[in-house]
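Project standup — Tuesday

K.O.: blocked on the structure for the chain from last sprint. Re-posting the sequence here as requested.
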Amino acid sequence: MKATADVSIEVEWGDALDVSADVLALKHANALYGVDRAAVHALNSAVPDIHARLPTTGGFYITPPTDAVGASRVLFVGVGPLRQFGYGEIRRFARRALEALEGEMPHASHVALTIHGPGYGLDESEAFKSEVAGLLDAIGSGNVPAHLARVTFVEQNAGRAMRLQTLLNQLLETTRPDSQSRASRLPAEVPDLLRSVGYDSQSKPHIFVAMPFADEMDDVFHYGIQGAVNAAGFLCERADLSSFTGDVMEWVKARISSATLVVADLSDANPNVYLEVGYAWGCGRPTVLLVRDTSQLKFNVKGQRCLVYKKITDLETSLRSELDGLKRKLR
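H.V.: unblocked you, prediction finished:
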């Protein structure tokens, strides 16, 4: 096997189905979502029985060589239901993907994969660190393709791709080959910063964000809320109800009832957000309410204190101050 110092890792902005690689590694969470759904659709002609071949929890399936997508082959790893696919499962998925390729595709030198978690509500940074740690687990144990030289995270959202590349540089700064390269060299073992990530993530203090999962709210979440929450030392989670099958509200209730705080954006009076706020109050969870325009508030919250914002930068500043005050009270 090659020395781990010869394996590089990078984040690339683009469509995972278009990326040229030896193999694209995807999850199969008992159903199809996002990229894995698109991949199966693209592979239908090349692999007519692909639905029957998709793996259950713990299993995997590698397609024959195909030109239906950019990668020569696609690896599907069975991971169980999406709502149970947490930080620890993400770490195990990444390790399992490389371990599966060790025996089946030993000559694979370039593996592409996508980030898991943020698309259905997990903390973006914690999920990414969990996945990187899983790759390092496999590489450190030697259970990877003998010719592995490059791992690429492919992200279709340009803003997220930039954030993940910045985070990757911070995680592996000392192993970058030079300041001009996007790629970082993977260390010989898991750094201390990543040693427990995934394993203890579910018990870390987190803030649950109740807000619509809509494109027009993305900047509000990522630049107005997420940065302030992470800077205060909390994981930042929210739930995309459309991503789940089954009783998603059980997951939502569990994360709200265990949250240190609930941040809720009441702009546009989304009924799901009001439902989540009501549940938080019922659980006795403290809440911070946000709104762009107080005229949008419904009667049952009009008497509550709200952080009113016009600009995202103002929201980020106000929320940082609010969370700093909360941390002082918790000491």
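K.O.: great, moving the ticket to review. Residues 1-5 have pLDDT under 50 and may be disordered. The chain has two domains: 4-194, 205-330.
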